[in-house]
Design a protein that fits this description.
The protein has 360 residues and is an alpha+beta fold. It has 10 helices and 12 strands. The strands form 3 sheets. Strands 2-1-5-4-3 form a 5-stranded antiparallel beta sheet. Strands 7-9-10-12-11 form a 5-stranded mixed beta sheet, covered by helices on one side. A two-stranded antiparallel ribbon has the order 6-8.
Length: 360
């Protein structure tokens, strides 16, 4: 077992097993900086093995520095400062090899109130992962600002023009302007809805309200809406298997999944859009495929990320649709993947399990 200093009583074998199960990095040192234990996560984050670390000095084995080059352990000074001090706030630090980590510490005293520091428990988190999350959030804000600017400018412009010069326009001109305002308002509403979905998915707060859902009927409804909006009727083909299982699903979210996948096939694909529904061993599988250029295999892992828009030159959309689809499918306990369709285009296939909802 790794991570224990067998020469001292501070860390027991049971503790060694427990710290290796922690998702975050953990380093345990005594009050004078001698390393007592290192868990697997800390070894992975720092590149320092437990065998090399245990028994060494903190400032030599883990020479953390802040962005100004100051030595973190010397600044921590466990034996100095107020004897009531027990927690050290998390802050970004780096090692000589370049790893950026978010480091926090707790000073363990005996006795707990005002005693000497006997151990220092240090937690490590991947600074790179947090930086990527912050960049993703910054990208989201930037995208939202960009996507909102155009429709809001249009709404403001047409509204101001109509208010100032209402009597100068014909009824037909007014109708066109108001239709534009209405469409742009719908665009803003869709964007806000997408942002709320992204927030709920990322925070794990997505709620499902399950009912018995006729999935083929929902697909026919979506196709009818596309045809009513101007798509040719022969653009779509529905293949529904016999003896489909009873499905308890959130109808609104299933409509959103199906609508986004059909919209994606229409926007980025060509030819007939085929929606196939079939029973599988543990639930229902739905495939949506087109006859366009498809998605290169090396790009397949990226399609469900935020802001992915592929190689299409067609503009429109925020690049959040497939990310939301994946989150909604997984919230139902299902899975989704993309592959090359038999006709050469892209095929998105998701499966959701059968079973009655838990009303507890």
């Amino acid at each position: 077992m790794h991570g224990a200093d067998t020469g001292g009583p501070e860390v027991s074998p049971a503790c060694t097993i427990a710290i290796d199960d922690l998702p975050d990095g953990l380093i345990v040192a005594d009050g004078f900086g001698r390393v007592l234990a290192v868990n697997r996560a800390a070894a992975r984050l720092t590149g320092v093995s437990p065998e090399r670390a245990v028994g060494g000095d903190m400032d030599e084995v883990f020479p953390f520095r802040d962005h100004d080059g100051r030595e973190w352990w010397k600044g921590l000074d466990p034996q100095g400062g107020l004897r009531t001090r027990s927690r050290v706030p998390e802050r970004p630090l780096h090692l000589p090899a370049g790893q950026e980590l978010h480091v926090a510490a707790r000073l363990v005293r005996e006795p707990a109130r005002g005693g000497d520091v006997v151990r220092v428990a240090i937690t490590l988190r991947d600074g790179g992962a947090r930086a990527r999350l912050e960049r993703s959030r910054a990208d989201l804000v930037s995208t939202v600002a960009h996507e909102l600017r155009s429709p809001l400018t249009s709404v403001k412009g047409f509204t101001a023009t109509l208010l100032a010069k209402w009597t100068r326009f014909t009824d037909e001109q007014k109708r066109v302007m108001l239709e534009t305002v209405n469409n742009d308002a719908d665009r803003v509403t869709r964007l806000i809805t997408e942002l709320l979905d992204v927030s709920r998915i990322e925070s794990g707060r997505l709620e499902l309200h399950r009912h018995v859902v006729d999935v083929p009927a929902r697909v026919r409804r979506i196709i009818a809406g596309r045809v009513a909006a101007g798509e040719p009727d022969d653009r779509f083909r529905l293949l529904a298997g016999a003896d489909l299982p009873e499905m308890w699903l959130d109808q609104d979210k299933i409509d959103q999944i199906l609508g986004n996948l059909v919209e994606n096939a229409v926007r980025h694909g060509r030819g007939t859009v085929t929606i196939e529904i079939e029973s599988v061993g543990w639930g229902l599988a739905v495939s949506v495929r087109d006859e366009g250029e498809g998605i290169a295999p090396e790009l397949a892992p990226r399609v469900f990320r935020q802001f992915w828009r592929g190689n299409s030159r067609r503009r429109g959309g925020t690049g959040l649709g497939l990310f939301i689809v994946k989150g909604l499918v997984e919230a139902h306990g299902g899975t989704i993947a993309v592959q090359r369709a038999p006709e050469g285009g892209a095929e998105f296939r998701f499966t959701v399990p059968t079973g009655a909802p838990d009303f507890a």
